[in-house]
Specification:
CATH architecture of the largest domain: 3-Layer(aba) Sandwich
Structural class: alpha/beta
Oligomer: single chain
Shape: globular
Strand order of the largest sheet: 2-10-9-8-5-3-4
Order of helices and strands: EHHEHEHEEEEEEEHHHEHEEH
Radius of gyration: 21 Å
Helix content: 25-40%
Length: about 350
């Protein structure tokens, strides 16, 4: 039976019910091995087959070929903030970064430890309420780093920058929620706990050419090339989290793929944005319309109304609506597994709230 609470958390986020059910079965008996997925050896043929199948499903979903590698790492997107420059930059190299929010800022802080970093676009002065696209990138940089969707600030890249240098993207909060030409990217990384599954694993997709002429004598556990050489099982991986990711990718494929995910995401987000735009005096979204996120919707309310709104949401078991701790306000996170019906329930509550308080 579906849980009563509606999970609008920014992450860990709602999971498909089918994935929860198959995971429950795997916890008892994984693929008729007689062992729980929590007990299975990570170097057994059964688990290797799971990893290989998941890698292929990810590639098929992204429509990428053999020139890309798929890894399942740990440490979240935060570890990738350092692992990317560690792998891609010598001390004499430089890279370009776009800062559209807190996660872009953190990525820059880590990258500056390893090499020279140029911030080519920074929307801090606009409180990160828009995506700035008018900037120039020196072609001598080793790569350009962007955050595709900003969970805290509620902005999203809808048209990615064209660049002569490799493009690197943190897609943690909108991976597989829409159709993209993934071949435009040379490295993509995403924490699993939003659209991909349970917390504990990070999807990293790498175009092999970006690893050429990179630093030597790296620590093996942080070296992408060593993980690739080991078939994505260099050390003990987060077995259960990879299983949940695998089942979630299958669920996406079986439910219409990225085209269906995009249509559903747009429909759900549009329903909430319509209410926000119809009642601007109550729900104020500071984000420029053309840059609004379809995954994380943020708005502010008059202080007294906001307090009442969040208290009533809590009473109705609408979970995770309070804005980021340094940002405040309200945030509605809508990921692939969030049913349209649940979004409509929240939307109807918002309309009823307006009638009662305004």
């Amino acid at each position: 039976m579906k849980q009563h609470a509606l999970n609008f958390n920014s992450g860990p986020a709602v999971l498909p019910l089918e994935v929860i059910e198959t995971s429950k079965q795997a916890l008892q008996n994984f693929n008729d091995t007689g062992l729980s997925i929590l007990e299975i050896g990570h170097r057994t043929e059964a688990f290797k087959a799971l990893v290989f199948e998941t890698q292929n499903n990810v590639k098929n979903l992204m429509n990428i070929g053999a020139d890309y590698e798929v890894l399942f790492l740990t440490g979240g997107a935060t570890q990738q903030f350092m692992q990317i420059p560690y792998n891609l930059l010598n001390k004499s190299d430089s890279a370009a970064y776009v800062v559209n929010g807190i996660w872009g800022e953190k990525a820059v802080q880590e990258a500056q430890i390893w090499s020279q970093i140029q911030v080519v676009s920074n929307t801090t002065n606009e409180n990160h309420t828009k995506i700035e696209t008018d900037f120039v990138v020196d072609k001598n940089h080793k790569y350009l780093h962007v955050t595709s969707n900003n969970t805290v600030e509620g902005t999203q890249w809808h048209q990615f920058p064209k660049t002569e240098i490799p493009l690197v993207a943190d897609m943690s909060s909108d991976i597989f929620s829409r159709q993209l030409d993934f071949t435009k990217f040379d490295l993509i990384y995403a924490g699993a706990q939003k659209n991909l599954g349970a917390a504990g694993v990070t999807l990293v997709v790498i175009k092999k050419s970006i690893l050429e002429n990179n630093p030597e004598n790296l620590s093996p556990i942080l070296d992408y090339r060593q993980h690739i050489k080991a078939g994505a099982i260099l050390n003990t991986p987060p077995v259960f989290a990879i299983y949940v990711l695998s089942e979630t990718v299958k669920w996406i494929i079986n439910n219409g793929g990225l085209n269906s995910m995009e249509q559903n995401t747009f429909e759900k987000a549009s329903a909430i944005y319509k209410i926000i735009d119809d009642y601007k005096d109550v729900f104020h979204c500071p984000v420029r319309k053309e840059d609004r996120s379809f995954n994380n919707i943020i708005f502010n309310m008059p202080k007294e109304l906001e307090t009442n709104f969040l208290n009533e949401c809590k009473a109705h078991k609408f979970i995770g609506l309070k804005g980021y701790r340094t940002k405040g306000g309200v945030r509605i996170s809508i990921y692939n597994a969030m049913p349209l019906e649940d979004v409509k329930i929240l939307g109807n509550f918002m309309l009823d709230f307006v009638k009662r308080y305004v």
